[in-house]
Amino acid sequence: MLCAYLVRKVLFTTMDNLDCAICLDLYKTPVTIPCGHNFCMNCISEHWDKAIKEEKESACPQCRLSFPSRPELKKNIDLSDLVDKKRKEDSVKSPGPPSISRVAAGLCSRHGRALELYCKVDKMCICCACVIKECSTHKKVLVEDERKDRETKLIKKSKKVDLQIELTEKNIAKMKENIDTAKELSERTEEWLSNKFCQLLQNVKQCHEAMAQYVEQEKGRELSRAEKNLHQLEQSAETLRKHREQTEALLKKQDDVQFLQESQFIDEPPLKEVPLTVVLDLDTKVTAVTDLVSKISKLVLEDLQKVTSPADKQEVQVSPKEKRCTEDISVNPAVSTKTPIGECYQAQYCTLSFDPHTAHKYIRLSCDNRKAEHSSTGIQKVPAHKARFEGCCWQVLCAEGLKGGQYYWEVNVSHPWVYLGVAYSSIKRKESDKRWYLGMNKESWSLQLNKGCCFALHGGKEERLGEHDYKRIGHFLDYPAGTLTFYGVGSKLNHLHTFHTAFSQPLYPAFWIGEGVSVTLITPF
Length: 525
Hints:
It contains nine helices and 20 strands.
């Protein structure tokens, strides 16, 4: 009888204490750790996971015994059976809601006493027995005081959250307003740009039509006058031929008397002087237009595209052929004078030579007229020639005139202080005025290489291109398109500048060479 009583008492005591010390509720998958205490598997796992994050050892939440390594958790089958039995008994006693645990009743799950204190260290409610047995050295406060402290903090946090909500709502309203403003601005800008570009295109088209009409009228007027002069010349030629036939027929007559009688009626036919020039007087008006078109072309084809290009590139937009040349061509300047340019310019590469009749007396030509060097000492004796540059125009032209196609060439420069470019044959040769340097007049276009920087020159106007120190310069002339492009040749072709204009005469590669400087025309493939 006594044995059965003890068994029932132990069973009752065990079943009366089936709450997890962490969640304070009936065990869910109970496990027993090495110190002998029981916990829900999830509760103790989460407790130890938190300890690992805080770089602490795995320890028992009840007895504080720490373990060198995290224990392996296995389900306590006997305890799990007791928990299941407890749940069944509770459900039989109260068919309604589940039985209220000790925690729900405000009692300690381990000692069955009232939870009157709060442990600051363990962050849990405890009873008087817990204070004596487990939390004697921990900081503790009354449950009511802890609640008041928590309530005060929550109220402060709630007020901060309210302020944040209010601020966030204001920010939402402001963001919506900014989005609407941005949409409105973009729509206005798009409309403005569309109107401006349409107006620009319309004006350009009208100007193009007006100039085409003007050129056509001038051409018609001048050609009409020229054709009248041509008709007069043809009539004169016919009269002269008839006079010659009469003279020849008369000279063949044998009768002297008849010859004398008829010869007095043959007089030299009167001839009017007919101008042979066919000149279209377009310079005054067309030159101004071509200058403006050149500026507009630069603005649209270079400056505007720089602005509209993606920010990570910011490169001058060129044709696909030029872009391929710029990006893909590798060069080793130390190698021979052979051009490095590949297929993209191979077809356009032209062989050039200096014209000795144009070379200033200070400029010596060598290497089959492919090298020009300025030497102010030991002036060479050169024959006078109408094409030769004189004075301080230390210049030389190439013998080849370029017109009506695409041409590419390269030059090597020994060191800076040189002008490279093209010129009309009409450029003055005998003037000592600086206005007739290459690029300082409307008959020439040039790139000036100075120490550490370079400039684009035309019509006496100068544009600084930045700091460059290239000794090998590539030129690409697209005559029909009216463009002259300069490249700095290094590990790749680097675009330096492009002139936009309407060429009206053949262009000759031209050079102004400073003292002690030499320029070499690169031999093509």
